């Protein structure tokens, strides 16, 4: 799954899709953003892009589906995106990364979306190619995550047109990272609720839930930590394709992703503490069980021995013939039991 | 709570309150600090600020309450604080951060206050905007934390007027960080007392208290650690809005916040050690219980077997008819018991 | 094995083989790569190399077998590879390293290959000497790992001829690192499957498997972590022997090896979690066993005591002569048993 | 204790003593060091310092006691030590720090002294102000720690006069750090002895001792680690007040404090290992106890059942009337016991 | 042992021996290395060195024994080695360090030697002073470790004469570090063998051996880790006393010491895993013991109760007089036992 044997030794210039989901049509949507108005359209072939090249407007081309190797080849020709960049786009298992090339900047990041119905997180790779007045984004599956940005473009087309493709890229990355925090927040709420529940009554189910949450958290960490590394690299690179006016936004991205990583670490610590509480309560339970067993055993073992003694069939056991022998034995046994209980009380065993 | 779904994808320029507490009036207090005298007043609208603009005095404007989006918009116009800075001010869940802008410096930090009556710590976000001869501070709730600084302004107005808005900002941040250490100190005292108590008698309550203190400590850490990062960034930035004469004060802030983080780590280590002591004492207790059970069982089990043997009803058991059979059996049993006790003594089981 | 006593204090210029496998012939294969065509041949002596020196084509010389000290000496003379470099080549236990010398660049890395039949990983040392239009590679054993690269050379000889020996070296290193990820992926699948299995039924075998996988993983880590260090050093060195056009490829190598290290850490964490789950399930099992023992003991111990009492042979035990004595005792015993069961139910012991 | 409520919000220029021990006189001793001779005297007021100002000799003024706020104010006037520096001097709870000011260098460090009689470590704050030909040192309590330096001054006044106030400061700091290592060494010896003791016989006291040593060690770490940070900062600062000829001495300080930190880490590891050994031996003990209990129980439980069977009072139990029934039962019971023992032997339970 | 009380506060220029072993003669051996020939001699006084000063040959002076303070003083005069350097040489407990001085470079490192007869590692301090055409080495005890280097000097005197004193120093350091790896390798083999042994049969001795190996490993780490720090500092210093032609050798030293540290970490991880395996196997053993005890107890406890019931002496127990009462009871008891066994089988307890 991580790396198929047949993909080892591929040329970095080869446009071959390395993911799993080959089905579905490729869908290309186009935003043409000008100071006053926004044109939205769906295109079917790369040739339709030609009129937009070198236009004065800001163009955002979003491509859903990565497996059309012929289309990718045409993008190399039409938009001058280098083949080795597109080769990376076609590897959905890639690590978050950034790379500057002659006429643009390539950024890739993992996008997470909470499917609220199914209560599970779907992960997709988002690739962004930032060029002069042109942003191309690639995803494997269509997603609604960027609808608020689309809305903002429609309302504030002038700001986007002024601040350029790098601001638009920031807006998308910002949504991606805000979603990290949103998903983490949901997970964190479950973790915090669990803690309150545990103080009440740590049942056997608790351990399974803790392990599940731990797994989920470390899964999120796999995507969030490398994303942080990438964002920090992006801010440090001082790329020419990020205008000075937009640098502060990228710094804010860095603050946000740092917050996400801090949350990860905080929740991980919480879970670790909960695990400890669980184990402590389990070992306290074992200790309680043993204490009860011991109290019972230690009290009754000598008594049982005594009644055994007088159950023996020797011809000559003088006590058996005493008038109050039976009652004396009862008295002795009561004394022993009371002595034991007093001892356990003193040692605080119950 | 961390991030509401509807706040994902907001423009960084949008002045929208992202916190929870929308109630309460906005309260604006103004300090006009001159070499010789200090004027204190409460203002109701942003327009009242106009006469103070570009005055020769040092102005400190404190705003309690962040949810008035219209007021914030007027601040952009009147004081030329950029909209994206105020947008951050209106996000109380933000991470401690610093950002320089064209005509000022923006700093945000978490403020902690111990409500001694209720014995719990309240957390508020403090935002500071440092400009030429002007300091604007924002909090969600009114707080008495800065009263000592207000007192010092009244007494030493000349020093504040001379050293400027950056010195005033330092004085406030200094109070915030001193409070971190004060609160940590209180928590630390509880932790250290617990240790002494534990050596006496580690009861079952101890574990709950340890877990509670651990939780509280890691909660403080969530605010203090990022604050350190921010302070270090502030010192490293060598911002133009921090005069060289005040740099040493900011370095002292860094020393103080470092001390807070070291305390965090030291107390965490103490708690961890206490947890270990608790677990050791619990497992020693279990081990003691088992030893007692074993001593009793191992002594009485063979004795009970012996008395069982002579309780059997076989027609032909010669020993039963011996004259001193009963007493011989008692002798054998005593020998066995003494032998066992000697063995346990030798193995140091009691 | 790591260091033989007789190899301590060897001169760094001494061409002495320091490995174990001295057997087998040395095999030298040669690729002569030109824009239009590729010549492949096997040579037997170093002298056959002379015509290729200073030719305009790109030469790849691959040498399988490192123990021919005479041959190595001739390489010093013929190809001007410094003796101290070749001395490192002849030490198969060396750490991944890179070193620039006057007329070239020396790189060594561990190569891992999964022998699918035997289901085990074989490790070999790969040394690369990158010079102008010449790449010399050394391995101890012949391997099929580079066949895809050979195929690519045959198909795209022009690209290789244009991008030079450093691109060819990158292609080989890329295959090595892709293999790391491939092998890690296989191991990771086993680890993830184990987790699912464990939730069902953590048998006794599980612990052995976890320990085995842990060992395997930490063994991979021994080779992958230093390789990362080496690759990072290579990228940072900005060596003259890596053309600017190929630098981005080396950066991609760095991304790939970083991904490998992240996988290592992720799987290690998974294994650690699995170990915890195993131990928890074991201690739950112990706790369950003890609870059952205790329930049985605590119920029957007093009952057995009671029946013992009425098995005593005292002359005067009034209850024995009651008409319904036997049935009353049964009643009392049932009450005790039910009371106990109710108590255990309340404490949730079963 | 760490921070008093009334000290929050103090001005960094306010000369207020923030420690606890206000009692005792202030004691000022003066060394006037010239090439040929050394004058030692005790002074009572700051005015007595005036004749020494700007003298050609090297002056070392040592002040024991920090609570005289008036005196401190006079030092500001007489020696031009800035008020904010002296304000730090008057805070004995401060972190080790260094700060350059216009005409000098301020260094503060924790001084530890082993009171051999009481076998406990006392901690005091040492502040050093290094100026041209003048060193002022502040301590809360008088200490004998620096007597060897005083001796060296008397013997080698020329070297001190030549190398200046920074060399004198180094000599004092060197003593402080040598004392760290000396105290650590004493603690370390206890830790190492404990290990040997444990292998013999890990008694119940051991755990208490380990926890005590751990506490002591982490207490030392609280002072030593920040001191290292300060020393490293001092070396890196390349302050003008440290002459190039003395830089190597400060580098040696850094080596020494690094050694102290390494010792801390090494002893901490030893203690951690000892704790593990203790727990292992405890759990082995529990396991041994349980094994014995089980062996006894498992052997006697079936035997006791058998003798119970033949203690039943059924009218019709044929075996009871066999001639050798009793002896046959003994034989069966012996066989069972031997079988059990053989099984346990095979499983290596004893 | 680490620091004697009387050594605190010593001047860094004082030539006082701070070690323990004062006995034995000082032994000075001299190698005079020229292009064509090597002269070896033993000298008795420092004056014999004078003819070699400023000679054109390369001189290696090796001094075994550090306690002759007079001799050290003469070295200051004759060879211009600064007193503070020699003061460090006379402190055998010093940390590995390097220091450049006016006319040379001082390096000190711990030398480890495996005494194969006694199977223990002896540690000595090696100090090297590298000057123009002169290398002075100091050890406390005579050692055979450098014999291979002596051999190489005799064979390749030209190379040593050409590459100079820094190459000779490298050759010695290389031997020291190769010995680290050799000793680690031996320890590592023991650790790896232990692992195989453990899978077979983790006896009680295993824990002691693991703790012993752990102690040994962390002891090696105490010397190897600071040595790495020193070597890295040496490579970074770009000292004038290391000729550019020899820099690559020093980089190789760094690679070797890094390999040693990686081995340390790898073996430490192995030992940690082994400790876990041991504890797991111990807790599995305890769990097995408990399971057996429980199975036996739970089966026989109710049976023993039943036979007790019919051992009671009530006048009126109807079942006792049934014809097949005894056999019915046996039947019931068999059913109970089989039911229990089936239940345990189902829960996989045996």
Walk me through the structure.
Five copies of one chain form a homopentamer. The first copy, chain A, is α+β, with helices and mostly antiparallel strands. Chain A folds into two domains: 5-280, CorA soluble domain-like (Beta Polymerase, domain 2, 2-Layer Sandwich), CATH 3.30.460.20; 287-346, Methane Monooxygenase Hydroxylase, Chain G, domain 1. Chain A is 55% helix and 16% strand. Chain A has helices at 69-79, 83-89, 147-155, 157-200, 205-237, 244-309, 325-346, and strands spanning 27-33, 38-43, 58-64, 97-101, 104-115, 120-131, 134-139. Chain A has a seven-stranded mixed sheet with strand order 2-1-3-7-6-5-4, with helices on one face. In chain A, strand 1 (27-33) and strand 2 (38-43) form a beta hairpin. The mean pLDDT of chain A is 88. Chains A and B meet through helix 3, helix 4 and helix 6 of A and strand 4, helix 6, helix 7 and helix 8 of B.
Write down the CATH class of the largest domain in chain A: Alpha Beta
Principal-axes geometry of chain A comes out as: rod-shaped
DSSP strand count of chain A: 7
- Could you tell me the CATH topology label of the largest domain in chain A: Beta Polymerase, domain 2
Largest interface: A-B, 62 and 60 residues
* Fourth-tier CATH superfamily name of the largest domain in chain A: CorA soluble domain-like
User: N-to-C terminal Cα separation of chain A, in Å?
Assistant: 56 Å
Structural class of chain A: alpha+beta
Largest sheet of chain A: 7 strands, mixed
How much helical structure, as a percent, in the residues of chain A?
40-55%
How many separate domains make up the residues of chain A? 2
């Amino acid at each position: 799954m991580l790396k198929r044997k047949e993909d080892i030794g591929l040329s970095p210039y080869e446009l071959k899709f390395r993911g799993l989901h080959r089905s579905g049509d490729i869908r290309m949507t186009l935003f043409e953003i000008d100071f006053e108005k926004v044109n939205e359209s769906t295109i079917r072939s790369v040739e339709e892009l030609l009129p937009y090249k070198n236009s004065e407007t800001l163009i955002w081309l979003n491509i859903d589906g990565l497996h059309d190797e012929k289309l990718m080849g045409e993008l190399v020709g039409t938009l001058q995106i280098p083949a080795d960049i597109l080769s990376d786009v076609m590897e959905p298992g890639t690590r978050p990364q950034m790379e500057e090339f002659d006429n643009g900047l390539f950024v890739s990041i993992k996008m997470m979306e909470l499917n609220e119905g199914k209560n599970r997180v779907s992960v997709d790779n988002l690739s962004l190619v930032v060029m002069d007045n042109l942003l191309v984004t690639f995803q494997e599956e269509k997603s609604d995550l960027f609808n608020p940005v689309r809305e903002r473009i429609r309302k504030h087309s002038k700001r986007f047109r002024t601040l350029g493709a790098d601001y638009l890229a920031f807006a998308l990355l910002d949504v991606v990272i805000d979603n990290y925090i949103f998903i983490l927040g949901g997970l964190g709420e479950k973790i915090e609720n669990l803690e309150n529940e545990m103080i009440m009554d740590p049942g056997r189910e608790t351990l399974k839930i803790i392990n599940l949450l731990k797994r989920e958290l470390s899964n999120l960490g796999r995507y969030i930590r490398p994303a942080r590394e990438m964002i920090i690299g992006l801010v440090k690179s001082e790329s020419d394709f990020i205008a000075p006016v937009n640098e502060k936004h990228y710094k804010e991205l860095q603050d946000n992703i740092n917050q996400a990583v801090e949350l990860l670490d905080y929740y991980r610590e919480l879970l670790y503490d909960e695990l400890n509480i669980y184990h402590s309560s389990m070992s306290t339970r074992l200790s309680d069980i043993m204490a009860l067993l011991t109290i019972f055993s230690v009290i009754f073992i000598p008594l049982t021995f005594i009644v055994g003694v007088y159950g023996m069939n020797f011809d000559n056991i003088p006590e058996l013939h005493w008038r109050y022998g039976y009652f004396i034995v009862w008295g002795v046994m009561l004394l022993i039991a009371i002595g034991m209980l007093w001892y356990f009380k003193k040692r605080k065993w119950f």
